Amino acid sequence: MGSVRDDELSTYTLFDQRGIFKVIDGKEHQISEEEYRAANPEHRGSGCTECSFVDNANTLFVYRIPRELKDRASAEPVYVGKFTMPGWVGHSSFYIFKCEGCRRVLVDYPHGYSAGCLYVVCDDCRSKFIFHPRKNRDVYERDNIHIPPNFNLIELVRLLIRSRREARKLAKNDPV
Ligand SMILES: [Zn+2]
Ligand SMILES: [Zn+2]
Fold this sequence. Notes:
Blueprint lengths: L1 E4 L5 E6 L2 E6 L2 E5 L1 H7 L12 E2 L3 H7 L3 H6 L5 E7 L7 E7 L6 E4 L2 E4 L2 E5 L6 E3 L6 H6 L10 H21 L3
Parallel strand pairs: 5-6
Antiparallel strand pairs: 1-2, 2-3, 3-4, 6-7, 7-8, 9-10, 10-11
The structure holds zinc ion (ZN) (2 copies).
């Protein structure tokens, strides 16, 4: 199950075991995979000059990122470029960081929204790094993502503390 938002209003695409649905004002309209693909062509053939195509995040990590960046990786994500992958209808900025939970160095792109903020997440232990809308403003601007005007600072701080604590707990249980 998952969904992709088309815009900030009430139209989005829903994927689940029943098929693909366009949801408009709360009403589901089933569409075929062909219809979905026709309306959302793959970005890789678009001639975009801003990004490069990679097969998957592993290829990106192994072949597209200089050794020094991997050696220097810390908990604070560092921008490595814009990429697109099979099936994607757009591109995204990617960041390299060292997971605070399992200490693995990995790449991810910003996901939204935890307490109204973007985050990157470790696909192994699910530890998150949440981008602060002011301190990490560049991350929001790079992908033209609106800084959440009404992000909840108290909730964000609470989330940050909790994710730090969970990461530390994981790191203790699984020392590398
Ligand atoms: Zn592109
Ligand atoms: Zn991890």
